[in-house]
Amino acid sequence: MAQPTGPVARHSGVSREQFRQDIYPLRKPAVLKGIDLGTCTTKWTVDYLSQTAGTKEVKIHVSTVPQMDFLSKNFVYRTLPFDVFVRRAAEVKHNEYFISEDEKYYLRSLGEDPRKDIADIRKQFPSLAEDIQIPEYFEKEQFFSSVFRISSAGLQLWTHYDIMDNFLIQITGNKRVILYNPRDAPYLYLAGTKSEVLNVDNPDLEKYPLFMKARRYECSLEAGDVLFIPALWFHNVISEEFGVGVNVFWKHLPSECYDKTDTYGNKDPTAASRAVQILDRALKTLEELPEEYRDFYARRMVLRIQEKAYSTNYE
Ligand SMILES: O=C(O)CCC(=O)C(=O)O
Ligand SMILES: [Fe+2]
């Protein structure tokens, strides 16, 4: 039995108004083609990037295999000057390396102090930021972060969700992105914000039988494409070539809903974290009852959650 699939809409030359009126309200992923991104699409060669951004140190993921695994931690964090990192990420075999001559690299840029500061390429890479025009299809005050995403050919980033709306701007290199609706969370074997199913193209169905029920939305991104990833939509990203991207997170909820300590855009909104804490207390309280009663009241609580909190306006 094949996994069900869904479409990812593709639009060309969408204006701010068209996006806001016709695409954004659907809360579905969409590929936007032909948006003016500035000179970065032609300028950002390996030589130019390394000369322009220079020797600023960056913390990177280094992996000996293409599929990074956050559970077994088959990758390590290392620091390199940006110019050295870009050159290594663009080559397949390395003369100088940390673990193996064909190791792969991934950069997710961070703020100066990642515990306090938010990634913003205008602050961390001002000379490169001049070359990119970020499509501001949202209000200025909603802006949260702009993040460099640079990866070696073949690298695959695990399925995860972020809690803010997102434009993934692919500047150079092709990518394949596989997305899942937030509603399919029960089939994704989540550990926090990430899915344990790493091999989405060939999943271990003995271990993850429900994964077959998750509807798969797949798209290819080419240089110059922008992918709208609505908040909470799961995404798995495979870089088919060495590629440079920048993603922009923006706040879709009123500012006060977000966790003020979140610098990544992936901490659950504070009301959600509080609700989960209260649920954990309720579960602890149910332990005071013998199994027969615990089961009965637990099932009634589930029904109450379904009745009171589930949305009916989902297709
Ligand atoms: O393209 C990538 O490397 C990852 C993108 C991603 O996870 C994001 O934009 O939230
Ligand atoms: Fe993400």
UniProtKB/TrEMBL annotation:
Top-level EC class: oxidoreductase
Q: Which Pfam families match?
A: Cupin_8 (PF13621)
Q: Name one GO biological process term.
A: wybutosine biosynthetic process
Instruction: List the InterPro entries.
Output: Cupin_8, JmjC_dom
Catalytic activity line of the entry: 7-[(3S)-3-amino-3-carboxypropyl]wyosine(37) in tRNA(Phe) + 2-oxoglutarate + O2 = 7-(2-hydroxy-3-amino-3-carboxypropyl)wyosine(37) in tRNA(Phe) + succinate + CO2
**Database matches in SUPFAM superfamilies:** Clavaminate synthase-like
| Record key words, sorted | Dioxygenase, Iron, Lyase, Metal-binding, Oxidoreductase, tRNA processing
State which Enzyme Commission number(s) the record gives: 1.14.11.42
Q: In which pathway does it act?
A: tRNA modification; wybutosine-tRNA(Phe) biosynthesis
**Cofactor or coenzyme needed:** Fe(2+)
Where in the numbering of this chain does the JmjC domain appear?
A: 123-267
Q: Which GO terms describe its molecular function?
A: lyase activity; metal ion binding; tRNA binding; tRNA(Phe) (7-(3-amino-3-carboxypropyl)wyosine37-C2)-hydroxylase activity
| Keyword Oxidoreductase found | yes
Q: Summarize subunit and interaction data from the UniProt record for this chain.
A: Homodimer.
Briefly state the protein's biological role. Answer: tRNA hydroxylase that acts as a component of the wybutosine biosynthesis pathway. Wybutosine is a hyper modified guanosine with a tricyclic base found at the 3'-position adjacent to the anticodon of eukaryotic phenylalanine tRNA. Catalyzes the hydroxylation of 7-(a-amino-a-carboxypropyl)wyosine (yW-72) into undermodified hydroxywybutosine (OHyW*). OHyW* being further transformed into hydroxywybutosine (OHyW) by LCMT2/TYW4. OHyW is a derivative of wybutosine found in higher eukaryotes.
Family, per entry: Belongs to the TYW5 family.
Q: Which PANTHER family does the UniProt record give? A: HYPOXIA-INDUCIBLE FACTOR 1 ALPHA INHIBITOR-RELATED (PTHR12461), TRNA WYBUTOSINE-SYNTHESIZING PROTEIN 5 (PTHR12461:SF104)
User: What name is this protein filed under?
Assistant: tRNA wybutosine-synthesizing protein 5
